[in-house]
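Bump. Still looking for histidine kinase structure tokens.
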Amino acid sequence: MSRRLTQEELRGLFLFEALDDEQLDWLAARGTAVRYESGRPVYQEGEPATCFVVLLSGTVSLSRNVHGDDIELSRTDQVGVYGGATQAYLGDRVPQVYNNTMHAITDSEMYELPAVELGAAMREWFPMAMHLLEGLFFGMRNVNNAAAERERLLALGALSAGLTHELNNPAAAAVRATAVLRDRVAGMRHKLAMIADGRLDGQQLHSLVELQERAVKLASTAPKRSALDASDAEDAVGDWLDERGVNGAWDLAPTLVAGGVDVPWLEDVKVCVGKLDLEPAVRWLVYTIETELLMGEIDDAVTRISGLVNAAKQYSQLDRGPFQVADVHELLDATLIMLNAKISKQGVKVVTRYDRDLPPIPAYAAELNQVWTNLIDNAVAAMHGDGTLTITTSRDGDCLAVEFADTGTGIPAEVRPRIFEPFFTTKPVGEGTGLGLDISYRIVVKKHHGDIRVTSSPGDTRFLVLLPLTEPAPTA
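Sorry for the wait, here they are.
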């Protein structure tokens, strides 16, 4: 049941108190007072915003739907409060939908005005205000987009610098090892010529080649020794060579020990070639061992480069669709690799506690990587070069939970309610745009229908990201 309001009733609402009689008559003719029983929704989140509403009596609440749960934002019985199509003045230039749900908590009465009527009235009655409001709305949207783009470029620049640094180390190691390898191969050819100058018969050469093959296998499977064990082994090998007149024994010993050679193996060499040819044979075998170790270094360096490239590919998701079924652990590991240079430079220790039994989830993988980047970057910054970042995955009901816990200084209680606001940052000027957590919130909550929560005290700040385990593809 609905009714028309009088001029006096409309003027009694603070929103309309400054309007003239003609304007009030216009509102009275086009709007109606509608009663809602307790528990009934006045309008629903996500539906087309067709009405602007003003509370006349009763109590109403505003709520938002977060991952299937209605979260109450506010509750009021103040006459004159309004909601619904509050951006009707923008017309068709912006899709008009209700961004929350209003419920009647008690039997309530609302003044309802069609959105198209409100938009037309505002543009006619307040043209200057419309220019200001439109400028504010579209200006802020453009600023948000530009700042978000800058945030992404800054993140990309930091990641590129980190990746370049990470790639430089194994690449430089491969170049250095290749240069040394070339020199060692030349030396091995020279020593082989000295050994094969007629002093060794065919059987001895055959045995020496067998010893070389054994040396290669030893070098490829040599166990890592502690510093003390390596020192003792080098002393024993160095003493043995020195006692048998091998020049530079103490220079040869570290390479032989690194390749897994011990005194009994050297005794086999002596038996094979005799005392006179022991030194050239040992040096030839040292070149063999060093060559194998250098090839191992090159293999490790190239594998590391390949791993970094794969991590960058996983991080960027360049060859994959935007929405896919993804393993969160792979995304987290790729992000940690991309940020490794920054994390290591800051002296932060990273601990991962993954529940590997968790299934892959439907997700925008590249955008989740952006969330991980923002949360890890903030955690590292909060620890000021000393602390531990613990990343834990677990199951939380119908959600996969990812927790980022750091031992930093914490987020002050008075700041905590604002951390997801656009442009709000606690970082010094020039070190942040204040969009990282806002972007993360929108990716998790808006695009994935999940949730992101924070608890904080000095030495223990935790960001918890909840993502649905199963869900139809969310809308962009």
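Residues 127-195 form the longest helix (69 residues).

Edit: fixed formatting.
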